[in-house]
């Protein structure tokens, strides 16, 4: 298995069954308005995709499907809707099926619990996109556990903080690789809506045999946790060898 990390939560999952695009935010830098009520008002994305001109179209033509954990614009943006072939299979949570079909996509599979698809077993997991009132407003969100023969089991946690739902997924599925959306995204009021450094540490403690890949940093204006700060925390906790923090464009092999 390989993970070609592009930016934020967008990545290409490479398996023997093919290549799958996850949570596409494909806009060029500064194309979208800032997230409002954030500590700064930089336009989004704050950085470009790490692709040379012409590479993006070739990449999109080579994928077998798209996995969308939820349709907030930093995971499913207008540029992705424009560029993706409308007959590419899209997997999503039930709550987003109508919206994705309404954008013209004709092969959409909503996952309620489990789906056998393209040689993969994909299980939907729950999460909390923040706590209290802000978490309720940001819902619904999903994660996916992806399993294939002779491949490591992968848990894409999605936009969630550390919570009972994440803990239960780790215990139930025992993934060998866990991708967490860090960045400690937040608004001016209310707590974090994605994982903090402490949350990432909690994931490591709950799943001591897993490798953790931390993404979702330094690309959207309300994400305050930097790669360097997270790296420092993992070193303090003696977890640096278990938490991989890729730069945009990196490819990880498992």
Notes on the structure:
With 254 residues, this protein is an alpha/beta fold. It has one domain (2-246): Ribonuclease Z/Hydroxyacylglutathione hydrolase-like (Metallo-beta-lactamase, Chain A), CATH 3.60.15.10. It contains seven helices and 14 strands. Strands 6-5-4-3-2-1-14 form a seven-stranded mixed β-sheet. Strands 7-8-9-10-11-12-13 form a seven-stranded mixed β-sheet, with helices on one face. It starts with a strand and ends with a strand.
Q: What is the spatial order of strands in the main beta sheet?
A: 6-5-4-3-2-1-14
* Principal-axes shape call: globular
Question: Which class of secondary structure composition applies to the elements?
Answer: alpha/beta
Beginning-to-end CA distance, first to last residue:
5 Å
CATH topology: Metallo-beta-lactamase, Chain A
CATH class annotation? Alpha Beta
Q: What's the multimeric state?
A: single chain
Could you say what the CATH architecture is? 4-Layer Sandwich
- Average pLDDT works out at 97
Largest sheet: 7 strands, mixed
Rg calculated over all Cα atoms: 17 Å
Percentage beta strand: 15-25%
Number of strands: 14
- Element order: H for helix, E for strand: EEEHEHEHEEEHEEHEHEHEE
- Give the low-confidence spans: none
């Amino acid at each position: 298995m390989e993970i070609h990390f592009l930016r934020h939560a967008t990545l290409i999952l490479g398996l023997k069954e093919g290549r799958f695009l996850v949570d596409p935010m494909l806009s060029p830098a500064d194309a979208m308005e800032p997230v409002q009520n954030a500590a700064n008002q930089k336009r989004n994305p704050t950085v470009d995709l790490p692709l040379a001109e012409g590479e993006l179209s070739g990449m999109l033509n080579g994928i077998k499907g798209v996995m969308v954990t939820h349709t907030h614009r930093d995971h499913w943006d207008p540029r992705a809707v424009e560029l993706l072939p409308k007959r590419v299979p899209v997997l999503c949570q039930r709550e987003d099926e109508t919206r994705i079909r309404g954008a013209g996509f004709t092969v959409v599979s909503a996952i309620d619990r489990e789906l056998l698809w393209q040689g993969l077993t994909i299980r939907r997991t729950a999460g909390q996109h923040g706590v209290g009132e802000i978490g309720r407003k940001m819902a619904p969100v999903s994660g996916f556990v992806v399993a294939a023969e002779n491949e490591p089991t992968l848990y894409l946690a999605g936009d969630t903080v550390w919570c009972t739902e994440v803990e239960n997924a780790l215990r139930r599925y025992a993934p060998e690789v866990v991708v967490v959306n860090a960045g400690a995204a937040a608004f001016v009021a209310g707590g974090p809506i994605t994982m903090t450094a402490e949350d990432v540490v909690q994931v490591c403690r709950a799943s001591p045999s897993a490798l953790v890949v931390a993404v979702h940093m330094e690309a959207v204006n309300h994400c305050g946790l930097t790669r360097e700060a997270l790296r420092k925390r993992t070193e303090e906790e003696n977890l640096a060898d278990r938490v991989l923090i890729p730069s945009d464009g990196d490819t990880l092999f498992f």
